[in-house]
Amino acid sequence: MSLLNPPKLVASTGATYNCSVTETSARELSVQKWSGLGNPHESNLFKSAQWSPDGSCVLTNSEDNILRTFVLPVDLLDHSNEPKPLTPYSQTASAEPVSCATIYPSMSLTDPATCCFLKSTRDHPVHLHDLLLTNTRASYPLINHQTEKYLSPQSMLFTPEDANKFVVGATSQIAFFDLQRPGEGPYLDLKTIPTRRSVQTCETMKGVVSALAINNGVLAAGTLSRQVGLYDGCGSGSTIGVFTVDGEGGGITQLLWSKCGRYLYVVERKSDTIAVYDVRVAGEKMESLKGRMAQTNQRVGVDIAYSLEGEVVSGGIDGMVSVWEASGKGEKAFEWKAHDDVVSGAAIHPGGVVMATCSGTRKPGSLDEADHEGSEERRWDNSLMIWAL
User: Fold this and answer.
1) Is residue 284, in this structure, part of any structural domain at all?
2) How many alpha carbons lie under 13 Å from residue 309 in its C-beta half-sphere?
């Protein structure tokens, strides 16, 4: 298996979601109908896709504020001339757009008790939902004690040392929760800067904490104001250092550790490059992975093939998926045309056998409405695809 060879499409949602939010809602169960927020004629794009830890499912987030669980068919890799159809096994609707979601790290499809995920939305607590049903199992409030309003985490992950602990990032704040304490707030609250008016130093950072990643006990936190903080003890220890990202991106959307744990990949919106930093010297930029097309405010997902050689993959606004070798010199090694629209997500299967991509971008209007810049009909590609590597 290699990410440097042409992959084969083995499963897809096809044209099912190549329509508006309300057109999707009209076809699906009444309990999962669109909340009514936003533009009813907006294209029902896929915003993101992530694999379950056991590799059996893909969890997606769409414009209609519904998280869908797709369970892969058991005969996924059996020889077939046509890709197998993908339909959601379950759907979890939200009244507000989903800021972030993450699946329980010990999840196994054979143990229903472990099949759950966390979800963050505006003006609500963090919720623990069932991955295979529509149940809400628990909630965890993050509250501004001065205004008594809910704070909305923009990033979230489980700690690798303890699957029952999770970390969230909000505005100038990183909070730590215990999954086994439903209804309770954080047991530890880290302010990344003491007060809003504090002067920034080499150990403080200000802004929305929009990305989190942990490796070897080091928590990396990135902000929309283009800073990265490194914290010991999975975030509960001392501050290792804070640095500002080089270049001209529009804010950090994702942080990923290299397979060896020595380098940190920094992904930004409105940036065609992925910056690589050596964490042994905070702020030392090693190289930039070049060649992806991502000059957009929309999040364009990146992933690393940890189960293979550590290759890096990214979507693009041109419908391409780009691949860089782990030991490369910054130039992409391979690419292929995956979608006819923005590839908003690219995720490697935990076993490295297949990968998932999803697509779509905001296009208000109906399917048969002509493009304002020409006579051709608009191309809609809101799809989830599975590729054999």
Assistant:
1) yes
2) 11
